[in-house]
Batch of 4 targets.
Target 1
Amino acid sequence: MYIKNMALLSVKNLTIRFHTRNGIIKAVENISFSVNRGETLAIVGESGSGKSVACYGLLGLVPMPPGKIESGAAYFNDIDLIQAKEQDLQKIRGNDIAVIFQDPMTSLNPYLTIGEQLTEPLTTHKGKSRSEAVIMAIKMLCEVGIKDPEQKIYSYPHEFSGGMQQRVMIAMALMAKPKLLICDEPTTALDVTTQAQILILIKELQKKYGIAVIFISHDLGVVAGIADKVAVMKEGLIVEEGNTEDIFYNAKNAYTQKLLSSIPCGEKQLALCDENMIFLRVNNLKVFFHKSNSYSPWSFANMFSGKDKKIKVIKAVNDISFEIRRGEILGLVGESGSGKSTLGRAILQLTPIASGNVVFDDMDLTLLLPSKKTSVRKRMQMIFQDPYSSLNPRMSVYDTLAEPLLYHRLVSRKDAAKEVLRLMDDVGLARSAARKYPHEFSGGQRQRIAIGRAISTKPEFIVADEPVSALDVTVQAQILELILFLVDKHNLTMMFISHDLSVVRYIADRIAVMRHGRLVEMESTADIFKTPSQEYTKQLIAAVPLADPIKEKERQIIAGNKLKFMTRESI
Amino acid sequence: MPRPTQHNKSSLTQILPSIEKSTSLWMDGWIRLKKNTLAIVSLGILVLFCAVALLTPIIAPYGYEEQDLLLGAAGPSLAHPLGTDIFGRDMLTRVMYGSRISLAVGFLASSVAVFIGVIWGTIAGYSGGRIDAAMMRLVDILYAMPFMIFIVLLMVVFGRNILLLFLAIGAVEWLTMARIVRGQVLTLKQQQFIEAALSLGLSHWTIIRRYLIPNILSPVIVYTTLTIPSVMLLEAFLSFLGLGIQPPESSWGLLISYGVETMEEYPWLIFFPGLFLSITLFALNFLGDGLRDALDPRTSKD
């Protein structure tokens, strides 16, 4: 149907630089690539490698200044996008090239209904009548797997889940029947099962309409199943380019090999821990949140009566019991909203508990006096997900690490410096960085600071709440190594919360699966992957993308039918 | 185990010994502020003005109520560098005496406002729930009270007193500050580093002092530099109504408001007090900008 050999978009020697106060930043250096009709090109790289800038530069979406396209040409349907006038670009942007962004939450306008957002381009730019546009919108929503589109077009974005929002974004991108779809990390913000559904959806629609796709991602597992060609970018350069199979099976470039080897795979050797050494026990723990639409501390009625009629109880953690043995790493897995973070916080007494108790080293934490809590706090710490917001921006690394030491009088003021430097060595930070502030570090280094702070009080138990999910894959591998090293060195017990099964499989001795506030299954890592007993666990495992194109394609065919069924169910 | 590769060549040798010294935001801020010429010049001007204001009784060429009715209003001359007013009083002397009141009101009343406002707003925002609601309702009630009646009442009950004036103005100005601070704290509270501090077992007071207040400095400084001039003008307004200081004492605001009446005949009567007020406000703004940048590690370029 389409002429396969004709390149739809061919980019030649594109160079984009940013001219900032601190000098010129070479975002994209002399890169060339091409996409044919109906083909998928994946651009893979770590954050800051220029993969998004390259694509946005083509569409004139890079802010200029400071950005500047220094040279290059990009032919799309015989039009040079680089030389094209802004008006022409605008036409191409909406009609021929569409973009799907990473975070659907921020790319939809919260004040307009889905229907308005879908039909607006058609009525204003294409001169369609309103009723015509609405019919098209409904058809398109149907196509992307949204149930009851006739009603859903009157909904606002916040009424949808993340996956549904991304479906709406895809529908919006496809409304104008584009020839090229640029997907900028479309599944990074989504859960693993939702991710699998969205990937299948993109693939199906691509086949149906013969669209070319440029798929930007940092996740090689995602790319393996979807791409025909892969380009690996590093520091603005394309270091390797080729067919998906070639890249995955015979990578020539050292960096590509490093990326591939960074993907956590395999299982950890089971740590030697005594099954009878119960370190932490959680009994029938319940954490409820009260939420109501009308509640606000501002209204006088609430302030004085303290009662509210329409309180909705959210059972974030609903009757969970389990135990953690001394010296083990327990992986806690679940999708977003399953209550896994709340469970972690409840164990550390950071969130009020409705009922049940937490027994830590034979102490019932829920009965502990506030005065005693401080001394227990020292023994249990937390590592947070987002290294960008978990560090005080106004405190240098030195202060951040010295604070807990001095506050708990673990060291004298005189010895603090020595201890801080020792901590920095432990987590692999250069000593010279002590006086720097968090914003001067990369995500991985910030996470090292946060880990240093967590181990500063010499805790015995650490809750790590998605410590690597905000990081690039190579950095993720380093941080996982660091965590394993520290757990071993300091004899830590850890609860490792994650939505990423491959990470948990790599790091945990035992895995607990959570869903809707309940514990679904808890087994040793090997057993849970070999013989999952619960249907939900099976689904979760099936949805993990594999960084192996052939296996991944097989998996998708098997999983596809199951997931298509799920799509309908889960709306 | 992986080691980071980045090394700061230039500072490696300097930093190792200096790490022993305590590193605080304020120290780093001062080091950064010193590099900002405009801010340092502004600081110098303000210090000079304050010194002159303090020493006025000693160095003023005339007494502030010393009249020369024969001379009347005269333009700048050698004997009277800034001219004289309609009663023949030396303007330089009056501007110097006026600066005592204006600067004192400006700085003291603003300090009162900042102090109460920041603490009130931080506690309200950090506590949340009913404490927050109750504290902010009080702010709303005070907001709703007519400011003039409030001051008149104070004056009636406690008598006319310059200190009371500072307190009265400060007591009104802190309301806005408390609201701004509370809003900032509400968003800061969501940040994970607050939770991290809690899980480290730090006390609430430490969290407020070390984690919240340093992070709300930018809006506080900006609002303070706006408060100081408005406080000075408020004092002039109150004095004009007879609630503040009384002639023959003077302040910049009062001098300006009298100068306005005779602006066409004797322009120097408004020009000089206005000039000094403007210089002060400019200096405050530059210093405020400098401070804001200096105390925010993210804006540093070194």
Note: The mean pLDDT of chain A is 81.
Target 2
Amino acid sequence: MKDGIYRNTCPRNCYGSCSILSYVKNDRLVKVTGDPKHGFTKGRLCAKGYASTQFVYNPQRLKYPMRQIPRGSGNWQRISWDEAYTIIAGKIIELNQRYGSNLACGYNKFSGNLGLLHYAVEGMFNSLGPHTKPIGNPCALTGKHAVNQSFGDHYSADPEEMARANLIVIWGSNPAVTNVHQMKFIYEARRKGAKLVVIDPIFTRTAEKADLYLQINPGTDGWLAGAIAKLIIEKGIIDEEAMVKQTIGWEEYQQFLHQQINLAHVAEQTGVPIKAMVELAELYGKVKPAATWAGLGIQRSDRGGRSISAINSLAVMTGMLSDPGSGLYYMHFEIEHFPQRLACHDGPVHPTIPHSREVDMSHFSKNALALTDPPLKLLWVASRNIVTQDQNLHSWQQLFQQLELIVTVDLYLTKTAKQADIVLPAATHFEEEDLHVGYWHYWLSINQKVLPPYYEAKSDLQIARELTRRLNELSPGFSNFPYEKEPIDWIKTELSPEIMRQYGINGYEDLLDGPHKKVAQTHSLKKYNLFPAIETNLLQGDQQQPFTYRLLSPQSLLKIHSQYECVSWLTYGETDNIIELSTMAANEHEINENTKIEIYNEQGAITGVAKINPTLPRNVVLASQAGSNPINQLIFQKEDHDANGSSTFFYDSIVKIRKGRDTHG
Amino acid sequence: MVKWAGFLFNADDCIHCKACEIACKNENQTPTGIQWRRVEKVAPELYLSISCNHCDSPECFRVCPERAFTKRKDGIVQIDEDLCTGCGLCVTACPYHAPQFNPETHKVSKCQMCYPRQDAGLPPACVEACTTGALSIVDLNQFSDPEATRTLPGFPDIRITCPSIVFYPPKPRKRYFL
């Protein structure tokens, strides 16, 4: 690339999907800034984004393909891409000959890079015909279902519009840490007199900034939403006519609130005093427009869908029907409106097997282990760090043992990569082309290839092109992947006439001048469902035993899941493996600040350093994700009752606490 | 009137996101551990984003035997690393830990308030990066606001050096804890 300033997009699983201006000199990234043409980020990045030069030129990045013999030994040998492709393609073909199909081959990919061209992994497997593929969304599916049930479609208001609200109520989300660019819109509203209310079990950095903070027992948000709705109806501060006209189930809903919601009982369950409920009901009933944000944190529990549903109903009651400024915020799935040609690529038809085998992401290891005829034998891991992030690790270990070939594509030798037979070095977003659409804001942006690859790193798309070509060399017609197509061809395919109309562009070239915001919203909400039947179920109380603690493991500021752990600008001065507990829990177990403690359950035990957090509820312990001793070792997903799948219920994990055993190291 | 460049830090708006701290490193490519700017928690719910405060009476300037420090007309305190011998007197003298000793180069460096950017009409990198607008620059000869304060709890004694920074303190909030 010529020296200059180019456009990239941060591909992380994050609300920001920030547009980046990359300063390139002599084929090196010398610095980055935000893109002032992006209306949501307005020219800013987060700390992680500003650490991009260290992320790209990190001595710990993988440079070459490597093979580990035997697996887990740490005995890594550098191999060429050619050798890697030959081994992998040879194995795929051998398994095909053994079992008569490619069902023994599967992948596990999630949110390491959200670019549309990273669906090359899906496209590559599709091009082989029936195989084993993950489905679902461990992060957001339960809330997505609840929003769809309430509104008949995905719905999440334009976050820039939050600046127009006079009341902002955030349930279970912490934008000051996880969505920093949203804060300026909240502050803008507040400077004009708006009130910010935060409801969260944790006294988060966002809660610290709230005009009114309500601490709530985890998993009980649905109760509180019901109580607020009841109070608003009793006070008569509601547009009854609009409710009758535009909602389904208004009568039943009122009856449910009247008969089933008892304020004293709700106060007992939620821990929120009636006085605070009245205060919030007054605000919700009278201050318009009111923005309601149902956070992802709420639906990381098996009661989460019902809570999101109850919050949706409350948002409908408090102005969504009459006032466009009274939006409901969750996250949106605009990406589903794109052609997603790679993800939807049609593979060759198998004579007897009509479809691929689907495995729910939230139970991948358990369900994959149950597969027979043929069992899963080859696993491709991309954009994913299973060993630090996924739950049910015991079954993962069993699955690893069963697999004959594990290939991991990553930037770093992650804990998952260390379990692989072959690791392939991935390109950063600065070394590949891509196209990005957010899931929070409504901006579309391009990602230019601005740097030569770091050593031998390649993009997921390039790997798909080269591996499928090798497969066909070894076995003609094995894959129908269109490997002659260049990245820009795929970008052009995604920019269908309909998409270009929606985003007001005439071609990808327009995106080189800056990101574009969606011009027209496609969802047209007409009827709203209020769900008394579902909400009835939320009346089950929490059966937590004494001296047990709910393990909450939200995102931390300077990482996304396990990403950025190797960036020393970010890790400098940070302490790994902190376990936060309440003053009461510390007293119960005679634990002092900075002493070694263990949290444990039937899954295992984690050692950490105690930090006493006087604002934490008695029955909650708080730990960050990943690190040297990842918390997912204690997370176990119970059987799923929802036929449509669910999010992973990370926050239903219960642990006990004990003083750390005094071992060395 | 001559300009007096200073920082304005709104503690009520700061969310401790550290974008300023890392944006400084991005702009100046300082090595890990050399913190020209850092965000610190100084009390429950009180975070400060602190760099060199380009003091009116800079201690670094006073104690440096090599006269490596200069103060521009607009108040920006600069260090000429070529003159620095790494004696560390400025490091111990500065109440704000602004001068940063690099054990590899045996030199001290510090925030220069992005003067090349400011001379080109741009804000310092930290200010540009602040997503909430909590950190900004002001001309202290012009700035006046009765709500602003010269110091905050947890900030070192300002009487020694008269730092070029003013603050807005956090506002009281209403909470219901369990």
Note: Chain A has three domains: 66-138+349-432+453-505, 141-332+525-533, 543-659.
Target 3
Amino acid sequence: MTLKNIAVFTFMLCIAVTTRAQEDTTAAKTITLLEVVVQHDAKLRNSREKKQGADLQISTDQLLESIAGVNMIRRGSYAWEPTIRGLNAGQINVTISGMAIVGACTDRMDPASSYIEPNNLQSISVSYGVNNQSYGSSIGGGFNFKLKQPELGNEKKITGLAGLGYETNAHAMQTLAAVEYSGKRFAIRGNGIFRKAGSYTAGGGEKIPFSQYAKWNGGLSAIYRLADHHFITLDYIQDEGRDIGYPALLMDVAFAKAKIGSVSYQYKPHNKRLHSWETKWYYNTIDHAMDDTHRPKNQVSIHMDMPGTSQTMGFYSDAQWGLGSRHHITTRLNGYRNRLHAEMTMYPENAAPMFMLTIPDAQRDVIGLDISDRIELSSKAEIIAGIRTDYTGSSLYSAEGKQLLSGMYTGNLNRSRFLFNAYVNGQYRVSDHWLLYTNVAKGMRGATLQEMYGFYLFNRMDGYDYLGNPGLSNEESWNLGTGVRFQQKKITVDGQAFAYLFRDYIAGKPREGYSVMTSGAKGVKQYINIASAVLYGAEATVSARPFSFLRINSINTYSRGQDADHHALPLIAPFKSENTVTALWKGYRFHTTAVYSAAQRHVSYTGYGELPSESFFILHLGAGKSFTIRTTVLDFNVRMMNVFDKKYYEHLDIVKLSRPGRNLEIHTTIRF
Amino acid sequence: MNRIFFFSIFSAILFTACEKENTKPSSLIDKHKISVITENNIVTTLWADNTTLQTGYNRLYISLEDMQGNEMKNAVLTYSPLMDMGTKKHSSPAEQPHYNNDLKLYEGAVVFTMPTSEMGSWQLDVSVNGKIITFPLTIQDAPRKNSGVYAGTDENKYVLALIPPVKWQVGLNDLEILISRQVSMMEFTGAEGFTVVFTPEMPSMDHGSPNNISPVSTGNGRYKGKVNYTMTGDWRLHFKLKKNDEVIVEDAYVDILF
């Protein structure tokens, strides 16, 4: 019963990446969740929807950007920061197979997603708002990067892939490989990728200096069947970036390294009561160092070193239960401890070096319980209701950290908060073609450690130094959403509208009488709670297949936000429309993607330091073919990005840094 | 056998050596002996916080012993520093010593306003129960300006000196200064009644720090406040001295490095 029913209730969005992944959103997910399937091995090629190899050579950032409602904050070619419907950083949850991971950089140069490669991944789940898919309290939902697990008992014992790619703009190249062994009791998978790029050229021919990067990423996963229904799995990922330029910022990065490891125990009895139960323990550590030594002298008012570290250890225990035939219960207990340390040493020309902690050894402890129930009310209606409570403790773990903040605040700076999230999602199938869905949720999040304890963290966007505020209240929201879906054989149209009503919205406000720490900064801001804010918007997607050889995908998104002081909320993308036409002809795939973004005029310079952005229209072309020789598949993809070499930027791009101009990408992958 | 013999000799030497060290009062361990003078059947020893004396505020300690080695706790002491420049002589601000029971020393302080040089030499006259003992002193120039002499708009001359803390650290620190008024070439007194406006600055960064507390008078020319260092490095502490809303000294400053 389950599979079929889930399929009925399933809300599948097809994404118009550029024909890469859209055929593969087969996963059965609830209405607020979108899953992008990333990984493709030769063994999957017989699956019904499989038409071409997903291109593992594109970056995680580009994959994320292709998802409806997801916009990226861009500071250079590398490590873009994802936002969901304009919500970002502490407002969304980013996990890797359920593991909490927190970037170490004070300038947000290393979001968790920068330490993951498509080559590591099975899929990316995106949840919009509060629901039962996340591993923490949040307001804006989040991403869960599901690591690719090796599979037991495959017909082919050894499978794998190898790929090589080159891009003309920035002379970027990447080479990747993965190999998997599948036995009856034991399976193991290893994967690796190396990427290197020079500085790119923006549309119109302007060279963007300091936009280079190099990185490697390796992953190892193993699964062992202890007994029937009992499994133990191991995952390890190491990701090391080096010499990464951030042209939108004042500094680059010497290195950004992550080590991510976990062991989990899975019990899958598949009986009526308990479907599955997984318990995972994990640890990850990030080591990050900013670097200004390559910048020309006139850009560096004072040389400085800014390293930072982040360590997270945690666990979760996740069980799926059945209660009668109508209730599907998920319980999730999870907890973690994260420690952040960031420091800055400045070297003035004729004076002694200056040392300062910028995140004064801050620690976050979280323990949370999530219980949700998916209830099948009838063959036409289903609701998912759940609650999540978290206890979070924030503290300073070193004497130096406490001593530093003694100059800013009096008394004990440890804080503990309770968070409470609750959600009800419902959907009703009106007819074979029409589906209505709606969701109401209460979201809550605690302030991040940066927002609580950050010490003069420079924000390039508005040019202010930011001070934390240990007295921040939780940010809360009521999330409302509703949508309608029309589905026919040849066309699927989906439209939904959403609104987030915030209370105690966390934002930085100028603090008078404080002198700036960063030379050239406009002033000092401190995080405070703003009484209220509102964010609303809509998304419409169309997926049409008028003929068997032609597919049309369209994603249209719009959102708008405003706080209690009538300031437009920052980092909100304007109306954007991404349309892809894919044609199949004699085994060849051709696609063209047109992206239009309206201008963003609804900005607040006084409130958030944002300036209006111009509209743009760009076009991408692509072609591909897969050659099959026995059990080996050779994928060949060519893309011409930004065909007209337009000079453009997106509203979320820091300092309106121009994006790459025309770029020819050639990606080849062999799968066996 | 031989080895054991040597070992016991060695330990004996070591042991006696340690014992000798232990006879020094514990409070003296972190003080440095500057000079010893035996006069009038009293052994007078001058101690300081460092091995050398520098311009600025120096804590100076005296221990007194009679010829039998008994400590004398009830003497009356005064400090009179003197700069002899040949053609003229002058004194400098001092805080008169009192017996400190914890330290088991007489504790006072002197602000040396200039270093020893060809121009002139320093001496400290210590009066012990009315009898003067003279310690010739060498005062080195401090690597950073920690005191200064300022002509006030009220026609008075003032000396402002930073009273060095045990240790500076990032964050909030106690800050104490001594402001002295020159009464005559030979006499200084604690300057009272000032409103001090205090602002720290990092000269190489052109910024200050928030949440400082301007020093307020605690008597005898001492003023106590708080300084907030947001980072290590070079700091300059600016003091504006005001009386009845009138600026007497515009910018007395001291430099800090830690």
Note: Chain B is about 10% helix and 55% strand.
Target 4
Amino acid sequence: MPTVAPVEVDGFVVRTGFLKDTAFFASGEGEIVLSGQGEKRLRPHKAGLLAAEPQPDGKGLISSGDDGCIHLTRLDGSGELLAERPRKWIDLIAAGPSGAVAFASGRTAWVRFADGREKEFVHERAVGGLAFAPKGMRIAVSRYDGATLWWAGTEGEPVELGWKGAHLGISFSPDGKYLVTAMQENALHGWRLSDAQDMRMTGYPAKVKSFSWSAKGRYLATSGANAAILWPFFGKTGPMGQAPLQLGTRSDNLVAAVACHPKEEVVAVGYQDGMVLMCRFEDNAEVLLRRPGDGPVSSLAWDDAGTRLAFGTEAGEAGLISLED
Amino acid sequence: MSATQDASAQIPVTVLTGYLGAGKTTLLNRILTENHGQRYAVIVNEFGEVGIDNDLLVESDEEIFEMNNGCICCTVRGDLIRTVQNLMKRKNAFDAIIVETTGVADPAPVAQTFFMDDDVRAKAKLDAVVAVVDARHVLKRLEDTEEAADQIAFADVILINKTDLVTAEDLAGVEARIRSINPYAVLHRSERCGIDIAKVLDRGAFDLDRVLSLDPHFLEHGHHADECGPDCDHDHDHHHHHGHEHGDGHECGPDCDHDHHHHDDPHSVKSISLKAGDLNPDMFFPWINQVTQVQGPNILRMKGILAFKDDPQRYVIQGVHMIVEGDHQRDWKADEPRESRLVFIGRDLNWDVLRDSFQACIAQ
């Protein structure tokens, strides 16, 4: 039976996840809780925290706040100010390879390299999201009317991908073949990068705010409907002409967050009322992981082994769900 | 399907509009320094020369998003959506939000943001649009720009500021001109924005249940209220004639004394008040849908209180451009005349057609 170990957090859980075996919880009130062998409570920002992303190597957590600062917090609790944009609210960050960090404010995105160098990328309209490519020092920036792909390490013209409307969250497929954005309207947009073929994924009753690629990148799981919607990305044409899987359907509640299991074809699904289910792709078998609580699930993440799930809610509830006794 | 709409959980939002130099920042600082126990999050377009003394202050660069529904007037402020969402990560830090727009900002996308984005709508609700106008310069601004009229047309509360700097006759002229654009806003006069802030905040101007108590002009005959729906996804294949080229493009200096014929300018913002007894709902709803779809771009605000035949309840309705929302409000009182009143404020509207087609909705 899954067990839930609550973790006390002081506000809206902006992001939860794992740095190696240590769970982290970053709250909008500014607190970062590291929960491993012991517990550390840190407060790197002067006031609120707007975004947090773990580094791909699991060595540290990048966070940004309404103080305009981008911080690195290491597992041992030590920290470092990586960059600062006074008076700006930095709410978009991405952690890349080799210690690189991307962040954005307004129409400008920056990449900061591990050696402290910064490179600026200016767009005509507001930046809506940032994502590093799975390979190479390449960054995708979602923006109004499309997305822009930049090679961060070298000079050169960017690749522009156009689609009318405001593009927000952005993600590469793990094989780097597809780029997907969540839009201001209730839809996803995708591009096959080999030929810039557009893909439209619609039918959501609400905005898509959470997405997660399944093991080997076979499916993209998304929030925004009364079930987790999983688009197939295997085969030559990806989701085009394919019906998505719908898992964990509830008649009276929307899915607020999703996290695919790192190894199995299983997705953790968090709902508006705080409930968390685990659903198997193959037969839609469901396991209840957490009962409804005080607020929508705002963040979900598995550890690398796939035995523990960290969750947080908008109401400041948080915890670790263990699948093993 | 969207998140819950528990009104008590929605943070009230006050939008301050007005031309540069009218006194917006002065009013804002008055609100912030007054001892009222409220904590505000303030969203400004740019940090001005006058400092704003507040803990939670965010600069937000205007980003207009068109909604992909084919509707040209369905625009929202993408930057505000994001800023409100970010503020909600610290919802224990403040009780209300004030948005200060630039002098040239179009108030419509700001207002529509609070009705058209489901996430914002679940968390925040527009309380009122407050316009600060400079008594000395507003007439000139109305000559020179469209935004000045839009700001007045959009406002629920208008603060005529710097009244000490004009004569009583000039002030009367200013008020008459403002009334000709927007007959239902609550007008206040002030010097250096000296006003009881209770007259500016917590107005519930978009609250269907409260409009009555706020609107003395409307009250005379009935009343009105509003709230718009986010459902602007009807088929908006309207015709759009935005009158951006002002025909008689003469430019006058500040001492110009020719007669400007405001009221004859077909592009100027005007209002129309339609009145009737009982309406036939089967005629009225198709009509209002058609009017707002076809003429939405030119309708800035719309409010109404309606009596439908054989319906014991008052129906209140309001709109911003193409967004329309209405609901039953309460029973008509025994001593209250059952009267339908509908006010449109707009530009380039064919007033005669509007009046005639409304008449066709009267219950037989």
Note: Residues 1-5, 211-264 of chain B have pLDDT under 50 and may be disordered.
